[in-house]
Amino acid sequence: MRKFKEFIIEKLVLLCGFASIIFVGLIFLFLLREGLALFKTAGPFNFLFGKNWYPISEPAQLGILPLILGSLLVTVGAAVISIPIGVGCAIYIAEIAPIKIKEMLKAGIELLAAIPSVVLGFIGMVTLVPLVKNIFHLPTGLTALSGSIMLAFMAMPTIVSVAEDALYSVPKNYKEGAFALGATHWQTIWRVELPAASSGILAAIMLGIGRVIGETMAVMMITGNAAVIPHSILAPVRTLTATIAAEMGEAVVGSEHYFALFAIGIALFVISFAINVTADLFLHRDE
Amino acid sequence: MAKIITKNLNLWYFGFHALKKINSSFEANRITAIIGPSGCGKSTLLRVFNRMNDLIEGVRTEGEVLADGENILGQKTDLVALRKKIGMVFQRPNPFPLSIYENIVFGEKIHADGITRDKLDEIVKRSLEDVLLWDELKDRLNQPALRLSLEQKQRLCIARLIAVKPDVLLMDEPCSTLDPQGTQRVEELMRELKNKYTIIIVTHNMQQAARVSDDTGFMLLGELIEFGKTQEIFTAPRDKRTEDYITGRYG
Question: What superfamily in CATH does domain A53-283 come from?
Fold first, then answer.
């Protein structure tokens, strides 16, 4: 009887262990099945590089280039804003801040991570969007820039906490060694600690960017959702994620449009997967 | 000639009185060993000389430490200049996670701008020659320093230090992670370096102190019990506690 109990528990735990992998596998299979169905009627090249996304016109034009560029623009913008601030913040917390301020900042950053994205989007809509509109004298403030700024806030917690961990785990004797050679604090950070933590910091950046690429709600609310190729960061854009979220409800199941949305899902999956693998490579580079 | 003199040096770590009224004098071009059981304050004393204790919160010092006649404990002391003059080798070899070459030119790069590549090459060669590593490493200067053996790492740390031309080398148990052969070679190196530098070594290994040092100080519970010629300390200690320690009654 005792043996039987052990056996059952062991198998149950095994099942739990494999559950996540099984789910990922199933999701991926489903995504593939539905998404690849598109390519029976449309060419992959036209899909990826087509310049027009008019899914309900006759005949439908299903080019996702504007969406890819929209995602890219928002992501690059968010990266440009969040990386320097995030890494700078991590350096401050790990190296410079007195213990009390350090605790305060860490709590604040956790809080930032806890804000639901729809709330961030909402706040962006009523505060940031009018601001962008007035500063740049635009017809609308719903632009890629607004999306970038809001997403930068969402990437920041990830970047700061992972980068801070990386900096904190740099062996203290590197620091002592640099100080003992007469290096100043900043020289020590710049020449020894940052290089020593570089793989962790790169991983932090990749994870932050991964979060940005996958983000849907906030971008849908504040980037304007115009599926045209953007010519500047001050133009409205629509991202891959926002397209799926906005159109899935109205696409007829089994239609070309429906399959195209799943194909976008595959594209997103591939992008996030590549980013996560890169991050992982950086994290484990030293082992 | 006395290179470093301490006068009534006291140090507290929060409430703990870690160094008690230390009066000592470290001579130039000699190796002085500081021995004593763990926790006696010998490393703390060493770290006073390049103000490394500043990195630790809650440390307060009193008294005077004169290096070349100048008190280095003042608020106004230029720590960069001090640490350039008085360098330190640590217990665990701590080369930076950079190439061998970059490790050695690290000091030069932070202290002077725009040095030519030729000058740096020369510094690397000279420093590695001084620690007898040049022949071993000259073909792999761009490899990561972390791949070296422990002993090579420790020598590299010494090379990195003498590249900035200090006067004094502080060594905090520099051989404690090395095997006997590595220890022997680092000790030989110390004897060789003695002509150019003032060396102060902290060690819990009494045999090592007896082998390499000219002068020895014995510390116990934050006090400097006895300080003098190594030979006298080891053959005719004046204090009962020194004798007990040296003969292995505790420690």
Answer: MetI-like (1.10.3720.10)
Which chain A residue shows the shortest CA-CA distance from B54?
A179
Return the bridge partners of B169, or none: B87, B199
- The closest CB to that of B96, out of A182, A184, A192, belongs to A192
Q: A205: pLDDT confidence band, cut at 50, 70 and 90?
A: very high
Point out the residues of chain B with pLDDT beneath 50. Answer: none
pLDDT at A280: 85
What are the chain B neighbours of A180 within 8 Å (beta carbons)?
Answer: 50, 52, 83, 87-88, 90, 161
Residue B223 Cα distances to A120, A278, B5, B22, B214, angstroms: 62, 56, 16, 7, 21
Q: Which two tokens stand for residue B79?
A: 């720590």
Which residues does chain A have within 8 Å of residue B160's beta carbon, measured at their own beta carbons?
A: 177, 181
> How many alpha carbons lie under 13 Å from residue B213 in its C-beta half-sphere?
30
Assigned domain for B251 exists: no
Gap between the Cα atoms of A44 and A40, Å rounded: 10
Average pLDDT of A51-62? Answer: 84
Q: Which residues of B touch A166 (CB under 8 A)?
A: none
CA-based nearest residue to A69, from A187, A237, A182: A237
Evaluate whether residue B240 is within a structural domain.
yes
The domain of B106 spans 2-246
pTM of the model: 0.82
Taking each continuous run of H as one helix and of E as one strand, the counts in chain B are 10, 10
Tokens of B180: 């006997």
Q: Could you tell me if residue B124 is inside a domain? A: yes
Contact B217, B208 (CB under 8 A): no
| Plot region of A215 (φ>0 → left; ψ -120 to 50 → alpha; else → beta) | beta
pLDDT band, residue A148 (cuts 50/70/90): very high
The closest of A272, A278, A223 to A246, measured between CA atoms, is A223
What is the phi/psi pair of residue A3, to 5°? -60, -45
Q: Which H or E element spans position A147?
A: helix A144-168
Contacts of residue B111, defined as CB under 8 A and 6 or more positions apart, other chains included, come to: A182, B80, B84, B164
Q: Which residues of B touch A171 (CB under 8 A)?
A: 94
For residue B44, the domain's CATH number is: 3.40.50.300
Q: Is B48 strand, coil or helix?
A: helix
Nearest to A179 among B52, B161, B164 (CB): B52
Best CA proximity match to B43, nearest among B13, B74, B73? B13
Domain ranges of chain A: 2-40, 53-283
| Residue in A173, A180, A195 nearest the CB of B83 | A180
